[in-house]
């Protein structure tokens, strides 16, 4: 802006019009004080109490006798970059995890070792009434299902669900 006025010889009004700025905005001079003493005091308190945020520092400033609006204090707190650093998060296990093993549903001789046979799509209240679900299709397309021997293969069909529920 100053370049256009000094170098090009434009008037202030014309230079402001070129960049789309109101001349009043260009001429505005802030009347806000810099609050240097308050900033120094705030920095001292924050360095003493590293884990204190702006709210607790506000209480300490009140005790000393400094009356300041909490919004102004927060603005100064941010401008001075006095924010409390976050503590480290939860420690998580590193490395790869082993895939979950699927229960095959029976022993090599075909006898079941677990509780009575249930449909894998059955909810808490019993068997599902749909003939084939996406979970059943996913199980049928899995390599575990296909690799099972003929005698120990468990077929989850609508008829086995009906038989298990009665």
Number of domains: 3
Give a count of the beta strands, DSSP E runs of length 2 or more: 0
Alpha-beta classification: mainly alpha
Order of helices and strands: HHHHHHHHH
Verbal overview:
With 166 residues, the chain is mostly helical. It has 3 domains: 1-30, no CATH class; 36-79; 118-166, no CATH class. The chain has helices at residues 2-6, 12-19, 23-27, 36-48, 54-64, 70-79, 134-141, 143-147, 158-165. The N and C termini lie far apart (87 Å).
Secondary structure elements and pairings:
Elements lengths: L1 H5 L5 H8 L3 H5 L8 H13 L5 H11 L5 H10 L54 H8 L1 H5 L10 H8 L1
Observed structural traits:
166 residues; 3 domains; single chain; 9 helices; mainly alpha
Summarize the structure.
It contains nine helices and no strands. It is an all-alpha fold.
């Amino acid at each position: 802006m100053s370049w256009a006025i000094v170098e090009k010889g434009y008037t202030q009004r014309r230079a402001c019009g070129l960049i789309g700025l109101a001349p009043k905005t260009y001429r505005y001079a802030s009347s806000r004080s810099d609050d240097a003493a308050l900033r120094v005091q705030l920095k001292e308190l924050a360095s003493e109490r590293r884990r204190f945020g702006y709210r607790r520092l506000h209480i300490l400033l009140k005790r000393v006798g400094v009356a300041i609006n909490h919004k102004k204090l927060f603005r100064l707190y941010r401008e001075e970059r006095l924010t409390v650093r976050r503590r480290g998060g939860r420690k998580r296990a590193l490395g790869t995890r082993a895939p979950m093993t699927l229960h095959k549903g029976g022993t090599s001789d075909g006898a079941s070792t677990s509780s009575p046979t249930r449909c894998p799509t059955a909810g808490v209240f019993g068997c599902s009434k749909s003939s084939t679900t996406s979970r059943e299709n996913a199980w049928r397309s899995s390599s575990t299902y296909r690799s099972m021997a003929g005698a120990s293969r468990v077929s989850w069909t609508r008829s086995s669900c009906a038989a298990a529920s009665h």
